[in-house]
Design a protein that fits this description.
Blueprint: E1 9-12, E2 25-30, H1 37-46, E3 51-56, H2 58-71, H3 83-102, E4 106-108, H4 117-128, E5 133-135, H5 141-146, H6 150-160, E6 173-176, E7 181-184, E8 214-221, E9 224-232, E10 235-239, H7 242-255, E11 260-266, E12 272-278, H8 280-296, H9 299-319, H10 325-337, E13 343-350, E14 353-360, H11 369-372, H12 384-405
Parallel strand pairs: 1-2, 1-4, 2-3, 4-5
Antiparallel strand pairs: 6-7, 7-12, 8-9, 8-13, 9-10, 11-12, 13-14
Helix pairs in contact: 2-3, 2-8, 3-4, 7-8, 9-10
């Protein structure tokens, strides 16, 4: 493109309801969403993109971003498994790489001025290329005064003959990737409105899921899902490659109605937001990982990890601080915590519910069936517990005496 590149903008483009006023270089990234990339590319060309690029980021997404989240059981505000948060850094990194290759002076996105994604993208952009220029139309007064919301954008798209996936009958915003699909805005902005049954895209209604439970086995190596053994149409199947394994887990969860949540969350920008999420395979893999840790992870390491690493890593992901020194520090802690987390979990799913039928590990020596048994001593002398209890009771006795002297009840 030569000198023209000085005026080129790299636009993250989904083919959905986004708006740009520049003539951009359009890039679409495959992070596992069910999307017609040819149609999105054709649309981008029709509305003025100089060049359209499609890149497959699925393996990077799973191995570099989803896997560590499983290893530390990442979750935001106890329920949200961070599907969108996990995808933004891999997309941002790829955008910067394309912008450098194509000589673009700026990158642009269609994120709203009230949401988290603008923060996630832009903090990543600036970390990856400090001198990059970011164009954010939704924060431009000239833009948002003319097109203040989704209804106005829908009208504009209809007027200009631009096809979009959203409609006024179904005006909610969706973000889909291999980890999840999210829904927000439109009628969902009333937190007391029940989501329409036809909104959910990925998973079957749990009430309509098969009447027979499905059984499968997940193996972990150092906390990473390494093998999924399952049955598909009566035939035994095994998935070991990262993307194949995650795709197969998604398929099992989707047909059994696993992974739907409806929450009100606290956005990083300070606004409360209602969001509905489908996170099928990740819900199962995370739950199975938590279970195998019960067998293989030292209790003090687990306690410290849960209290410090899991909470802070999840918040870092949610707030868009992936490319930060604190994330790198916590990532090293995650790897250290998972050295001995290897084993197999036998799982069952049925009408929206995930359960564990058993677990085993050939490597971990923390669980001793004889020592734990109520039917034999197994090298453990029950009399030793008397001293253990008395030592731990010293401070509690003093506390109880103090409360008694003060005339206070426990």
């Amino acid at each position: 493109m030569g000198e023209n590149n000085k005026k080129s903008v790299c636009l993250a483009y989904s083919g959905g309801l986004v708006a740009e006023r520049a003539s951009p270089l359009s890039i679409s990234f495959d992070v596992g969403q069910e999307e017609d990339f040819d149609a999105a590319q054709s649309k981008a060309e029709k509305i003025g993109a100089k060049k359209c690029i499609v890149e497959d980021l699925r393996e990077q997404f799973v191995t570099e971003f989803i896997t560590p989240a499983i290893q530390c059981n990442a979750v935001y505000e106890s329920v949200y498994l961070l599907g969108t948060s996990l995808a933004r850094p891999v997309i941002a990194r790829a955008m910067i790489e394309v912008a450098r290759k194509e000589g673009c002076f700026a990158v642009s996105h269609g994120c709203t001025g009230k949401g988290n994604d603008q923060v996630r993208f832009e903090l990543a952009f600036y970390a990856l290329q400090p001198d990059i220029v970011v164009i954010a139309p939704w924060r431009d007064p000239e833009f948002y005064n003319q097109l203040p919301g989704r209804d106005a954008l829908l009208d504009y798209a209809a007027k200009k003959g631009i096809p979009v996936s959203s409609t006024k009958a179904k005006p909610w915003s969706m973000d889909e990737n291999l980890a999840h699909c999210s829904y927000e805005a439109g009628i969902l902005e009333d937190p007391d409105t029940t989501p329409p049954a036809d909104m959910w895209k990925l998973t079957i209604d749990p009430e309509k899921a098969p009447d027979k439970p499905e059984h499968f086995t997940i193996s972990f190596h150092k906390g990473i899902p390494s093998k999924l053994e399952y049955t598909d149409n009566g035939k035994p199947k095994v998935a070991t490659e990262a993307v194949d394994l995650f795709t197969a887990a998604n398929a099992i969860a989707r047909r059994n109605g696993i992974g739907r949540i409806d929450i009100v969350e606290n956005r990083f920008v300070g606004i409360k937001s209602r969001g509905c999420y489908e996170t099928p395979g990740l819900t199962m893999l995370r739950a199975a990982h938590i279970d195998i840790e019960g067998l293989t992870l030292d209790r003090q390491v687990r306690a410290l990890r849960d209290q410090f690493v899991t909470f802070n890593y999840s918040r870092i992901l949610y707030n868009g601080l992936y490319f930060s020194p604190e994330r790198e520090f916590l990532h090293a802690s995650i790897l250290e915590s998972q050295k001995n987390v290897s084993g197999t979990v036998r799982c069952i799913v049925y009408k929206g519910h995930f359960g564990v039928e058993g677990r085993s590990s050939d490597e971990s020596k923390l669980y001793d069936a004889q020592e734990s048994s109520m039917d034999e001593l197994g090298g453990f002398a029950p009399s030793d517990t008397s001293g253990f209890i008395l030592v731990n009771a010293i401070r509690l006795k003093k506390y109880g005496a103090m409360k008694k002297d003060a005339g206070e009840s426990l």
